[in-house]
Design a protein that fits this description.
With 349 residues, the protein is an alpha/beta fold. Helices cover 32% and strands 21% of the residues. It has 11 helices and 12 strands. The protein is globular, with a radius of gyration of 19 Å. It starts with a strand and ends with a strand.
């Protein structure tokens, strides 16, 4: 079986409002950055895959305009997923495993600032029984948080501690939108306070994948993808136990996350309560655990929708590139209350 690695990662500075720049203008510096790090030109890339959402952009086939940032000539082998860029990385990974390409460029972007993102995300819900009620993403996350509190698995003070730890870690992340001490704030939707919720913002990210010796040639320390899997929960929220995430646990098992301990975990938990669920599902909640969780600050510091999951894989890979991690776990999610979950295990040489 071929080996595939992340050999370069780049991201934009995540901001509350990028009205002065288009998606292409936001993407191009990031794409140039990852290509420059590998010494590759766009014509050298064997496969390109992107993740974004037409609902955020407010127009159909919006991703075709973003392709201007990649370049229209020479013609490229290209694909797109209407979800977080982590799933675009999954498609590119499969492409390289089959031998159809030696390198792949994966990118994702999201601009939440033009509209009401809480309202937009209701379009993910069951169109017959749930969406007509218009429960927004924060209200649904609050239901999950309350279920955890009622089960005795957390409390508001513990949730505030997760937020404080994450944003303190973001102090060293120059791309983060929120850094340092931020008060818990008032209840946004009880029991969640403003500090328990992710910032609304715009941003982009990109990675370059390469196979076998090509990866070793392009970077000194590749972040090898040792396992990658994604699973989905039942669509109906009422038939799920919101305090648990069986799909995350299964994806982690299939990716080999439980075979040996990891030293780093980048978790895509936009709400503090969701980190509690993920830590339990991924067996990271032991009192004596030394695993560094979201050393980048995680999505509580920057949460560009459709790119935040890809950023988790990129941040984990970057720590391996720098020699700060030997075995890292990266997680991405999509949908309400951790409905869809992807888990990757990355290792250095």
């Amino acid at each position: 079986m071929r080996e595939v690695a992340i050999v370069a990662f780049g991201q934009s500075d995540h901001v509350r409002d990028s009205a002065e720049t288009s998606e292409v203008e936001m993407l191009m510096p990031v794409l140039h950055e990852v290509l420059d790090r590998t010494g590759l030109a766009a014509r050298d890339i064997g496969f390109t895959c992107s993740g974004s959402s037409d609902y955020l952009a407010g127009r159909a086939f919006s991703f075709t305009m973003a392709l201007d940032g990649v370049g229209a000539w020479p013609p490229i082998s290209e694909s797109h997923v209407e979800t977080d860029g982590a799933w675009a990385l999954y498609e590119a990974w499969v492409k390289l495993l089959t031998g159809e390409a030696e390198t792949a460029l994966v990118y994702a972007y999201g601009k939440s600032s033009p509209g009401d993102v809480r309202e937009v995300l209701t379009r993910q819900l069951d169109p017959y029984y749930v969406a007509p009620l218009w429960p927004d993403s924060v209200a649904l996350a609050a239901l999950q948080a309350q279920a955890l509190i009622d089960a005795g698995l957390t409390d508001e003070r513990a949730l505030a501690g997760i937020a404080a730890r994450s944003r303190a870690a973001a102090e060293s992340n120059p791309h983060a939108q929120l850094r340092g001490a931020i008060p818990p704030g008032e209840h946004l939707v009880a029991p969640l306070r403003t500090g328990d919720c992710p910032p609304i913002g715009d941003g982009a990210a990109a990675v370059v994948l390469a196979a076998d010796d090509t990866a070793r040639r392009l970077t000194e320390r590749p972040a090898w993808i040792r396992g990658l899997d994604h699973r989905i929960e039942a669509h109906a929220l009422g038939v799920r136990d919101l305090t648990d995430s069986p799909s995350t646990r299964l994806a982690a098992e299939r990716a080999g996350a439980f075979q040996r301990p990891v030293d780093t975990a980048e978790l895509h938990a936009p709400f503090t309560s969701q980190e509690v669920v993920l830590r339990r599902a991924l067996k990271l909640d032991a009192p004596d655990s030394t695993v560094r969780i979201n050393p980048s600050g995680g999505p509580l510091a920057a949460n560009p929708i459709m790119a935040a999951g890809l950023i988790r894989l990129g941040e984990a890979a970057a720590r391996i590139h720098r020699g700060e991690s030997d075995r890292a776990l990266a997680h991405a999610t999509s949908g309400p209350c951790l409905q869809q979950n992807l888990v990757a295990v990355l290792e250095g040489e």
